[in-house]
Amino acid sequence: MTNKQISVLPGDGIGPEVTSVAVSILKAACAAYDVEIETDEYLFGGCSYEEHGTPVTDDTLEACLQSDAVLLGAVGGPKWDDLPGEDRPEAALLKLRKTLGTYTNLRPIKIYSALMGASSLKPEILDGTDILIVRELTGGIYFGEPRHTKEINGDVIATDTMVYSKSEIERVARKAFEAAQKRSENVCSVDKSNILDTSRLWRKTVSDLANDYPDVELNHMLVDNCAMQLVRNPKQFDVILTGNMFGDILSDEASMLTGSIGMLPSASIGNKTGLYEPVHGSAPDIAGQNKANPLATIASAAMLCRYSLNLPEAASNIERAIDEVLAAGYRSGDIHSGADSETLLSTELMGEQVLKSLLKPGSVPN
User: Fold this and answer.
1) Taking each helix axis from N to C terminus, what angle separates 312-327 and 295-307, rounded to the nearest 10 degrees?
2) Alpha-carbon distance 117 to 77, whole Å?
3) How far is residue 359 from each of residues 318, 341, 354, 365, 366, measured CA to CA in Å?
4) In this predicted model, what pLDDT tens digit does every residue of 250-260 receive, in sequence order?
5) Which domains does the chain have, with CATH numbers?
6) Is residue 254 helix, strand or coil?
7) Which residues are catalytic?
8) In this model, does residue 227 exceed pLDDT 80?
9) 197-216 pLDDT tens trace
10) Is 121:257 a contact under the CB 8 Å cutoff?
11) Where residue 364 falls among pLDDT bands split at 50, 70, 90?
Protein backbone atom coordinates (compact mmCIF):
# COMPACT_ATOMS: atom_id res chain seq x y z
CA MET A 1 0.00 0.00 0.00
CA THR A 2 1.37 3.38 -1.06
CA ASN A 3 0.59 6.45 1.05
CA LYS A 4 -0.25 9.84 -0.46
CA GLN A 5 -0.60 13.03 1.58
CA ILE A 6 -3.41 15.39 0.60
CA SER A 7 -3.86 18.83 2.15
CA VAL A 8 -7.57 19.61 2.42
CA LEU A 9 -8.70 23.24 2.56
CA PRO A 10 -12.48 23.13 3.16
CA GLY A 11 -12.68 26.93 3.17
CA ASP A 12 -15.89 28.90 3.63
CA GLY A 13 -19.62 28.50 3.01
CA ILE A 14 -20.48 25.16 1.44
CA GLY A 15 -16.79 24.27 1.13
CA PRO A 16 -16.65 21.99 4.21
CA GLU A 17 -19.79 20.13 3.11
CA VAL A 18 -18.65 19.32 -0.41
CA THR A 19 -15.03 18.54 0.46
CA SER A 20 -15.95 16.02 3.17
CA VAL A 21 -18.02 14.09 0.61
CA ALA A 22 -15.28 14.28 -2.02
CA VAL A 23 -12.58 13.08 0.37
CA SER A 24 -14.51 9.92 1.24
CA ILE A 25 -14.91 9.10 -2.47
CA LEU A 26 -11.26 9.92 -3.21
CA LYS A 27 -10.11 7.52 -0.50
CA ALA A 28 -12.35 4.71 -1.72
CA ALA A 29 -11.33 5.15 -5.37
CA CYS A 30 -7.62 5.13 -4.54
CA ALA A 31 -7.80 2.24 -2.08
CA ALA A 32 -8.86 -0.01 -4.97
CA TYR A 33 -5.38 0.58 -6.45
CA ASP A 34 -3.49 0.08 -3.17
CA VAL A 35 -3.06 3.79 -2.54
CA GLU A 36 -3.96 5.04 0.93
CA ILE A 37 -4.96 8.69 1.11
CA GLU A 38 -3.92 10.54 4.25
CA THR A 39 -5.41 13.98 4.79
CA ASP A 40 -4.76 17.01 6.95
CA GLU A 41 -7.21 19.92 7.07
CA TYR A 42 -6.23 23.57 7.34
CA LEU A 43 -8.20 26.79 7.70
CA PHE A 44 -8.21 28.79 4.50
CA GLY A 45 -10.01 31.93 3.36
CA GLY A 46 -12.45 33.82 5.55
CA CYS A 47 -12.39 31.23 8.32
CA SER A 48 -8.61 31.57 8.52
CA TYR A 49 -8.93 35.34 8.77
CA GLU A 50 -11.35 34.95 11.67
CA GLU A 51 -8.96 32.63 13.51
CA HIS A 52 -5.53 33.96 12.54
CA GLY A 53 -6.09 37.47 11.16
CA THR A 54 -4.89 36.36 7.72
CA PRO A 55 -6.69 34.40 4.98
CA VAL A 56 -3.80 31.93 4.79
CA THR A 57 -0.93 31.31 7.17
CA ASP A 58 2.65 30.55 6.22
CA ASP A 59 2.30 27.17 7.94
CA THR A 60 -0.66 26.28 5.74
CA LEU A 61 1.21 27.30 2.60
CA GLU A 62 4.20 25.19 3.62
CA ALA A 63 2.01 22.17 4.39
CA CYS A 64 0.38 22.46 0.97
CA LEU A 65 3.77 22.78 -0.70
CA GLN A 66 4.96 19.56 0.94
CA SER A 67 1.85 17.52 0.13
CA ASP A 68 1.18 15.38 -2.94
CA ALA A 69 -1.87 17.46 -3.85
CA VAL A 70 -4.29 20.02 -2.45
CA LEU A 71 -8.10 19.72 -2.47
CA LEU A 72 -9.93 23.01 -1.93
CA GLY A 73 -13.62 23.65 -1.27
CA ALA A 74 -14.48 27.32 -1.74
CA VAL A 75 -13.61 30.70 -0.23
CA GLY A 76 -15.26 34.03 0.36
CA GLY A 77 -18.59 35.51 1.30
CA PRO A 78 -20.28 38.86 2.02
CA LYS A 79 -18.93 38.78 5.58
CA TRP A 80 -15.45 39.62 4.31
CA ASP A 81 -16.27 41.84 1.33
CA ASP A 82 -15.18 45.05 3.03
CA LEU A 83 -11.76 43.82 4.13
CA PRO A 84 -8.62 45.31 2.56
CA GLY A 85 -7.52 43.44 -0.56
CA GLU A 86 -4.71 41.52 1.10
CA ASP A 87 -7.03 40.25 3.84
CA ARG A 88 -9.87 39.08 1.60
CA PRO A 89 -10.35 35.32 1.22
CA GLU A 90 -9.66 35.51 -2.51
CA ALA A 91 -6.17 36.86 -1.79
CA ALA A 92 -5.38 33.54 -0.12
CA LEU A 93 -6.25 31.68 -3.30
CA LEU A 94 -4.00 33.87 -5.43
CA LYS A 95 -1.17 33.44 -2.92
CA LEU A 96 -1.62 29.67 -2.84
CA ARG A 97 -1.50 29.41 -6.63
CA LYS A 98 1.64 31.53 -6.71
CA THR A 99 3.31 29.50 -3.93
CA LEU A 100 2.56 26.18 -5.60
CA GLY A 101 3.53 27.46 -9.03
CA THR A 102 0.30 26.20 -10.54
CA TYR A 103 0.51 28.26 -13.70
CA THR A 104 -1.97 26.18 -15.72
CA ASN A 105 -5.66 25.81 -14.92
CA LEU A 106 -7.60 23.01 -16.64
CA ARG A 107 -11.38 23.33 -16.75
CA PRO A 108 -13.20 20.58 -18.66
CA ILE A 109 -16.66 21.49 -19.93
CA LYS A 110 -18.48 18.17 -20.10
CA ILE A 111 -22.09 17.88 -21.17
CA TYR A 112 -23.76 15.05 -19.28
CA SER A 113 -26.46 13.49 -21.45
CA ALA A 114 -28.75 13.19 -18.41
CA LEU A 115 -28.52 16.96 -17.88
CA MET A 116 -28.98 18.08 -21.46
CA GLY A 117 -32.32 19.62 -20.56
CA ALA A 118 -30.84 21.60 -17.66
CA SER A 119 -28.94 23.95 -19.95
CA SER A 120 -30.51 27.11 -21.34
CA LEU A 121 -29.24 26.09 -24.79
CA LYS A 122 -31.07 23.74 -27.14
CA PRO A 123 -29.94 20.09 -27.01
CA GLU A 124 -29.02 20.12 -30.71
CA ILE A 125 -26.57 22.97 -30.05
CA LEU A 126 -25.05 21.26 -27.01
CA ASP A 127 -24.86 17.71 -28.32
CA GLY A 128 -21.25 16.73 -28.94
CA THR A 129 -19.73 19.56 -26.88
CA ASP A 130 -16.48 18.57 -25.15
CA ILE A 131 -14.21 21.50 -24.28
CA LEU A 132 -11.05 21.83 -22.22
CA ILE A 133 -10.29 25.42 -21.19
CA VAL A 134 -6.57 25.92 -20.49
CA ARG A 135 -6.17 29.14 -18.52
CA GLU A 136 -2.92 30.81 -17.51
CA LEU A 137 -3.16 31.18 -13.76
CA THR A 138 -0.26 33.00 -12.14
CA GLY A 139 0.29 36.00 -14.40
CA GLY A 140 -1.69 38.71 -16.14
CA ILE A 141 -3.74 41.42 -14.54
CA TYR A 142 -4.41 39.50 -11.31
CA PHE A 143 -0.72 39.60 -10.41
CA GLY A 144 0.73 42.51 -12.40
CA GLU A 145 2.40 45.49 -10.73
CA PRO A 146 1.83 48.30 -10.07
CA ARG A 147 -1.61 47.94 -8.55
CA HIS A 148 -2.97 50.61 -6.26
CA THR A 149 -5.72 53.08 -5.49
CA LYS A 150 -4.69 56.66 -4.80
CA GLU A 151 -5.93 60.22 -4.99
CA ILE A 152 -4.46 62.32 -7.80
CA ASN A 153 -5.42 65.97 -8.30
CA GLY A 154 -8.55 65.54 -6.19
CA ASP A 155 -9.77 62.42 -7.98
CA VAL A 156 -9.49 58.78 -6.87
CA ILE A 157 -7.60 56.65 -9.39
CA ALA A 158 -7.30 52.85 -9.32
CA THR A 159 -4.62 51.04 -11.33
CA ASP A 160 -4.21 47.37 -12.24
CA THR A 161 -1.49 46.24 -14.62
CA MET A 162 -1.64 43.39 -17.11
CA VAL A 163 1.81 41.87 -17.59
CA TYR A 164 2.84 38.77 -19.54
CA SER A 165 6.28 37.51 -20.48
CA LYS A 166 7.07 35.27 -23.43
CA SER A 167 8.18 32.48 -21.10
CA GLU A 168 4.92 32.61 -19.14
CA ILE A 169 2.92 32.32 -22.35
CA GLU A 170 5.08 29.51 -23.74
CA ARG A 171 4.79 27.25 -20.71
CA VAL A 172 0.99 27.36 -20.52
CA ALA A 173 0.68 27.10 -24.30
CA ARG A 174 2.72 23.89 -24.23
CA LYS A 175 0.20 22.42 -21.78
CA ALA A 176 -2.60 23.31 -24.19
CA PHE A 177 -0.88 21.78 -27.23
CA GLU A 178 -0.02 18.63 -25.27
CA ALA A 179 -3.62 18.31 -24.09
CA ALA A 180 -4.88 18.77 -27.65
CA GLN A 181 -2.62 15.95 -28.87
CA LYS A 182 -4.58 13.60 -26.60
CA ARG A 183 -7.95 14.97 -27.72
CA SER A 184 -9.07 16.26 -31.14
CA GLU A 185 -5.80 18.04 -32.01
CA ASN A 186 -7.22 21.56 -32.15
CA VAL A 187 -6.26 24.63 -30.11
CA CYS A 188 -8.15 27.92 -30.19
CA SER A 189 -6.00 30.64 -28.64
CA VAL A 190 -8.11 33.51 -27.30
CA ASP A 191 -6.79 37.05 -26.86
CA LYS A 192 -7.56 40.74 -27.49
CA SER A 193 -4.72 41.40 -29.92
CA ASN A 194 -6.59 44.17 -31.73
CA ILE A 195 -6.25 46.31 -28.60
CA LEU A 196 -3.71 44.98 -26.08
CA ASP A 197 0.08 44.72 -26.37
CA THR A 198 0.05 41.73 -24.02
CA SER A 199 -2.33 39.98 -26.41
CA ARG A 200 -0.18 40.77 -29.41
CA LEU A 201 2.77 39.12 -27.63
CA TRP A 202 0.46 36.25 -26.66
CA ARG A 203 -0.64 35.65 -30.26
CA LYS A 204 2.89 35.78 -31.71
CA THR A 205 4.30 33.51 -29.02
CA VAL A 206 1.57 30.89 -29.42
CA SER A 207 1.88 31.04 -33.23
CA ASP A 208 5.65 30.49 -33.06
CA LEU A 209 5.26 27.63 -30.59
CA ALA A 210 2.73 25.90 -32.83
CA ASN A 211 5.63 24.94 -35.12
CA ASP A 212 6.66 22.42 -32.44
CA TYR A 213 3.26 20.72 -32.71
CA PRO A 214 2.58 20.18 -36.44
CA ASP A 215 -0.12 17.62 -35.65
CA VAL A 216 -2.23 20.23 -33.82
CA GLU A 217 -4.34 22.77 -35.72
CA LEU A 218 -4.11 26.28 -34.23
CA ASN A 219 -6.56 29.11 -34.73
CA HIS A 220 -6.93 32.45 -32.99
CA MET A 221 -10.06 34.20 -31.77
CA LEU A 222 -10.73 37.53 -30.08
CA VAL A 223 -12.18 37.13 -26.61
CA ASP A 224 -15.44 38.94 -27.31
CA ASN A 225 -16.08 36.73 -30.33
CA CYS A 226 -15.23 33.65 -28.28
CA ALA A 227 -17.78 34.67 -25.65
CA MET A 228 -20.40 34.78 -28.39
CA GLN A 229 -19.29 31.56 -30.08
CA LEU A 230 -19.48 29.60 -26.82
CA VAL A 231 -23.24 30.02 -26.80
CA ARG A 232 -23.68 30.06 -30.59
CA ASN A 233 -21.75 26.91 -31.48
CA PRO A 234 -19.84 25.42 -28.51
CA LYS A 235 -19.03 22.12 -30.24
CA GLN A 236 -16.59 23.93 -32.57
CA PHE A 237 -14.09 24.09 -29.69
CA ASP A 238 -11.69 21.42 -28.50
CA VAL A 239 -8.99 23.13 -26.40
CA ILE A 240 -9.36 26.83 -25.59
CA LEU A 241 -6.09 28.49 -24.52
CA THR A 242 -6.25 31.91 -22.91
CA GLY A 243 -4.91 34.25 -20.24
CA ASN A 244 -5.85 34.62 -16.61
CA MET A 245 -8.68 37.14 -16.68
CA PHE A 246 -10.18 36.03 -20.00
CA GLY A 247 -10.07 32.41 -18.83
CA ASP A 248 -11.78 33.28 -15.57
CA ILE A 249 -14.69 34.87 -17.39
CA LEU A 250 -15.01 32.42 -20.28
CA SER A 251 -14.91 29.34 -18.06
CA ASP A 252 -17.74 30.67 -15.92
CA GLU A 253 -19.74 31.40 -19.06
CA ALA A 254 -19.01 27.91 -20.37
CA SER A 255 -20.11 26.40 -17.07
CA MET A 256 -23.70 27.28 -17.90
CA LEU A 257 -23.55 25.04 -20.96
CA THR A 258 -23.73 22.19 -18.44
CA GLY A 259 -26.79 23.65 -16.75
CA SER A 260 -25.08 24.53 -13.48
CA ILE A 261 -21.76 25.88 -12.28
CA GLY A 262 -22.08 23.22 -9.58
CA MET A 263 -21.05 20.58 -12.12
CA LEU A 264 -17.60 21.86 -13.09
CA PRO A 265 -14.28 20.70 -11.62
CA SER A 266 -10.85 22.21 -12.17
CA ALA A 267 -7.20 21.31 -11.86
CA SER A 268 -4.40 23.81 -11.35
CA ILE A 269 -1.05 22.29 -12.24
CA GLY A 270 2.49 23.38 -13.00
CA ASN A 271 5.18 22.35 -10.57
CA LYS A 272 5.13 19.43 -8.11
CA THR A 273 1.91 20.02 -6.17
CA GLY A 274 -1.41 20.36 -7.96
CA LEU A 275 -4.46 22.25 -6.66
CA TYR A 276 -7.95 20.87 -7.28
CA GLU A 277 -11.18 22.75 -6.68
CA PRO A 278 -14.73 23.11 -7.99
CA VAL A 279 -15.40 26.14 -10.15
CA HIS A 280 -18.38 27.23 -8.04
CA GLY A 281 -18.19 29.68 -5.14
CA SER A 282 -18.94 29.36 -1.44
CA ALA A 283 -22.74 29.82 -1.82
CA PRO A 284 -23.21 31.28 1.69
CA ASP A 285 -26.99 31.42 1.19
CA ILE A 286 -27.20 27.61 1.43
CA ALA A 287 -24.17 26.92 3.63
CA GLY A 288 -24.80 24.45 6.43
CA GLN A 289 -28.12 23.28 4.94
CA ASN A 290 -26.83 20.08 3.30
CA LYS A 291 -28.19 21.31 -0.06
CA ALA A 292 -25.02 21.94 -2.06
CA ASN A 293 -24.14 19.97 -5.16
CA PRO A 294 -20.92 18.02 -4.38
CA LEU A 295 -20.41 16.65 -7.90
CA ALA A 296 -17.98 19.36 -9.03
CA THR A 297 -15.78 18.69 -6.01
CA ILE A 298 -16.03 14.94 -6.54
CA ALA A 299 -15.03 15.43 -10.19
CA SER A 300 -12.13 17.60 -8.99
CA ALA A 301 -11.01 14.65 -6.86
CA ALA A 302 -11.06 12.57 -10.04
CA MET A 303 -8.77 15.11 -11.71
CA LEU A 304 -6.51 14.90 -8.66
CA CYS A 305 -6.21 11.15 -9.26
CA ARG A 306 -5.39 11.68 -12.92
CA TYR A 307 -2.91 14.55 -12.75
CA SER A 308 -1.24 14.29 -9.33
CA LEU A 309 -1.49 10.62 -8.32
CA ASN A 310 -1.06 9.04 -11.76
CA LEU A 311 -4.18 6.95 -11.21
CA PRO A 312 -6.15 7.42 -14.44
CA GLU A 313 -8.23 4.31 -13.78
CA ALA A 314 -9.35 5.65 -10.40
CA ALA A 315 -10.23 8.97 -12.07
CA SER A 316 -12.27 7.21 -14.74
CA ASN A 317 -14.08 5.16 -12.10
CA ILE A 318 -15.16 8.30 -10.23
CA GLU A 319 -16.31 9.96 -13.45
CA ARG A 320 -18.25 6.85 -14.47
CA ALA A 321 -19.95 6.79 -11.06
CA ILE A 322 -21.05 10.42 -11.50
CA ASP A 323 -22.46 9.57 -14.94
CA GLU A 324 -24.40 6.61 -13.54
CA VAL A 325 -25.86 8.57 -10.65
CA LEU A 326 -27.10 11.31 -12.99
CA ALA A 327 -28.46 8.76 -15.45
CA ALA A 328 -30.40 7.17 -12.59
CA GLY A 329 -32.19 10.49 -12.02
CA TYR A 330 -30.50 11.62 -8.80
CA ARG A 331 -30.25 15.39 -8.53
CA SER A 332 -29.18 18.16 -6.18
CA GLY A 333 -31.25 21.33 -6.02
CA ASP A 334 -29.31 23.28 -8.65
CA ILE A 335 -29.93 20.64 -11.36
CA HIS A 336 -33.35 19.42 -10.25
CA SER A 337 -36.08 20.17 -12.80
CA GLY A 338 -38.98 18.94 -10.67
CA ALA A 339 -39.69 16.02 -13.00
CA ASP A 340 -41.18 12.88 -11.45
CA SER A 341 -38.28 10.87 -12.87
CA GLU A 342 -35.80 12.79 -10.73
CA THR A 343 -34.94 12.26 -7.07
CA LEU A 344 -33.80 15.29 -5.09
CA LEU A 345 -30.90 14.49 -2.77
CA SER A 346 -28.97 16.28 -0.06
CA THR A 347 -25.22 16.81 -0.29
CA GLU A 348 -24.49 13.76 1.86
CA LEU A 349 -26.97 11.49 0.08
CA MET A 350 -25.62 12.47 -3.33
CA GLY A 351 -22.17 11.51 -2.12
CA GLU A 352 -23.51 8.19 -0.84
CA GLN A 353 -25.02 7.40 -4.24
CA VAL A 354 -21.74 8.16 -6.03
CA LEU A 355 -19.86 5.99 -3.54
CA LYS A 356 -22.37 3.18 -3.99
CA SER A 357 -21.95 3.30 -7.76
CA LEU A 358 -18.17 3.49 -7.42
CA LEU A 359 -17.99 0.39 -5.24
CA LYS A 360 -20.60 -1.79 -6.95
CA PRO A 361 -19.31 -5.28 -7.86
CA GLY A 362 -17.17 -5.27 -10.95
CA SER A 363 -16.59 -1.52 -10.96
CA VAL A 364 -13.12 -1.55 -9.37
CA PRO A 365 -10.40 -4.19 -8.92
CA ASN A 366 -10.88 -6.74 -6.14
Assistant:
1) 160
2) 30
3) 10, 24, 9, 10, 10
4) 998 988 888 77
5) 1-102+261-366 (3.40.718.10), 120-258 (3.40.718.10)
6) helix
7) 142, 192, 224, 248, 252
8) yes
9) 999 999 999 999 999 999 99
10) yes
11) low
